[in-house]
Amino acid sequence: MRIKLNSIFVDDQSKALSFYTEILGFVPSQDIPVGEFRWLTVRSPEGGETELALEPNANPAAKEYQEALFVQGIPLTAFEVADVKAEFQKLRAQGVEFTTEPMQAGPVWIAVFSDTCGNLIQIYEPPEA
Asked: Where do the domains of the chain lie, and which CATH numbers do they carry?
């Protein structure tokens, strides 16, 4: 068993695709029309086969869950980066709004930002090996 696909709910798939590719640097993978929505995935430019599905939050339960996490300041997911402080500076220069600036949390460094699509995303720098 392995993780091949993870999903996040977004309030606008086109806006999410732009943010995740143009700002975060992910690569488009799947973009298949499915009725009024799309099967839309992105993946890391560094390779690997894991994809992130940008799911429409048309389901009222999903929308309520997404909004509750955002209001409570809880990140929906986390992405690993090599240098949190450098990534923070780069993203901030591109207009990304952070709710938590780089800080040490135990052995890791973290920061949290809004993806403009209804989610808070954490970036983290793992401890040196």
From this structure: 5-125 (3.10.180.10)
